[in-house]
Predict the structure.
Amino acid sequence: MDVLPLMVALPMAGGFLLPLVPKKRSLVTDVVAVALALALAVIALSLIGSPDRAYHMGGWTAPIGINLVLDGTSKLMLAVIAVVTFSVVLYCPTYMTRFTGKRKFYSLFLMMIAGMNGVVLTGDLFNLFVFLEIASIASYALVAFGCERDELEASFRYLVLGSVASYFLLFGIALLYAKLGTVNMAHLSQKIAEVGGLAGGDVVAAGKASPLLVFATVLFICGLGLKAALVPFHAWLPDAHPSAPTPISAMLSGLLIKAIGVYALARVLFSVIGVHEGGAVSTVLMGLGAVSMILGVLLAVAQWDYKRLLAYHSISQIGYVVLGIGLATPLGVAAGLFHLLNHAVFKSLLFLNAGAVEYRTGTRELGEMGGLNKKMPVTGATSFLASMSIAGIPPFNGFFSKLLIIVACFQAGRWGYALIAVVVSVLTLASFLKVQKYAFFGPLKEKWQNIREVPVLMAASMVLLAVLCLATSVLAFKLFDKDGLEQGLRNDRFLGAAQRSLTDREGYVTRALSPAVEFKPTSTDGTDDGT
Amino acid sequence: MKNLAAEEREGMSVIVGTVTHWVCAFIILYGLYIVAYGHLTPGGGFAGGVILACGFMILMLAFGKRRLVSMLPISRAAMLDCVGAFLFWLLAFGGMLFVGNVFFKNFLPHGGRLRLWSAGIIPLCNVAIALKVTASLVLALVALSVLRVKAGGSDEEFITDIDEE
Amino acid sequence: MVYLLCLVLFAIGLYGVLTQRNLIKIIISLAVAESAINIFLVLLGYRVNGTAPIEEGTLEQHAAFVNASVDPLPQAMVLTAIVIGVGVLALSMVIAMRLYHRYGTYDITKIRKLRG
């Protein structure tokens, strides 16, 4: 039995069933959620070794049916989503004792996971929209979960902006369907290549491209860019991420903006529309990435609210990822994907730390904290590790991914972007040194004399993510082959495979349209599938 | 209708109530027809479910919230909601269990062309979806109207008209 | 030409989202924009003098039916999009109601506890 659809089906089943659990036995919901997250993590990690394939749902082969495509990029994203989700779910049971309605929380949480897994796996553009909406609607409800004033306001703003972005995406899909007659991504890719693409992606020749295709590309960048919180579409993020309950902040900032934002954008632009190095789309992506980096870190340096500062840093680091991916060279794309993985790990850890501090002290203002290292050693240590990771200090994973992005910029001849990346990294370091100084080091304030460390499960999840911060830097070592980074990328089976799947458009088409599932066709009489 | 004073009586007048009694049955029957013939004529699970939910809503508009909640308690609607969704999931998963490998496969026998008993799992999917949509919409509309909201209230003053669990 | 009207409707919806001050009016503008996109998607499948995509005949008339009917795929897509829109609308209504409870007003310029 192929486990691929289980990645979407299992969390959905959990999401449907959990509200049925009676209120007295809410411990069952915790156990079920953790078990499901563990099962998903095991399946995702086992899928890394399995061959790339397409799974045709319902037996209908693409492009008539909807197919799920498993290639290197999907494997990377599935692994990231599953492992970080498991760590965050460990954090949930003790943190959520402050809220009522635990069953509904887990139900929405699992639906969000199902949506993200669906976005990562699907091979059909409209199906991508549907799963993106599932994940987004679940996240709107989760941001508003505590029903405090700022949570509701942030959720409303996020809802309106997110919906407008989804309508842009749907409009783009409608335009592509109008011109090319299909919504299957691989089939679209074939047809766009026949039509001539964006005129080879050359900036000079962009005037010769079909205007409808250019309009659709712009709509995709606007719509999916808002989901990915690129500047100038970032306005919802600094309100939504701090106000949400902490596990949700970690999930949103660590996974959602990447799975449904950056991954969807990369998949649509690379595999369907086609990005060439030095072309118009590549330039736009790099420009947006650079602006996000600068604006995010400049606005973050001035913040005194712990979680809001982390939210602005999310914008900045997503700028790094989009810059790397926008370079469209093999090293650039691989570096961008590596930074995506790293950011998922250390940003979730940072948000969980902020939540732990808030859980014990009740405040998010940096000015009121001080010397928490003496009372909360685990939180302080993991926070120190995560801060060093995001600032790019060796031997943590952030250093390697940022180094690779900067090296990729140099190799592509983009000196300006490399300089921007270095400067932003220095500013990030400054910002996190401020956080560490005011929150954890320094003299212990009077009112914090009696606080204790966070409960075991919360501490365990933070330690798990901290260990991952160190462990994922191993992935970078495999790229340093003796023949140079390019050769190391070609031989690598995790990051290199992810990069190859994204940039190789013809390979995606052949893989996605292959009839991989053997079934005995029953005698159908040609009736169409009614809704 | 009980003989209540004008302020206490919920819902609308006697004429509206009587007509609603008659009309509501037709609406629910029509909704069931749309659901059952979903694989042959336009409609199906979602549209039929919306019509069924409207049938219930007419009852609430004409007779007041308490009458509707006494017929369909909130907890019951929530349970039906989840059951409907899980039924749909089971039908999709059944393709995986029974036929071998394929998620969502239409594994029940396809009957004769354009007959009522045809098209495999699609009519069953329609029923499950209609169940979920009806329960969800009734729940959503009851939740929107049952909660009595006071402007500018604080946490403790958030009162509900009918006990929600 | 009719596609242009759909775009105009979408622009009206976007204008409402951007400029209205009342929460409920913002939600209604969002619904208008969503309807515009759905109408655009359905109209893409239109074929001049086409029939509705409901089969009624025998198997021999199938080929003629396929040539004469409008495209059913956008209709299926729009059904899904409408359901998604209903979900978003219901959620936004509940959030607006809870906001009214907290702040006492539907005016978005007064609901400004969070800085920019």
Observations:
- The radius of gyration of chain C is 20 Å.
- Chain C touches chain B at residues 52, 54-56, 58-59, 79, 83, 90, 93-94, 97-98, 100-105 (CB under 8 Å).
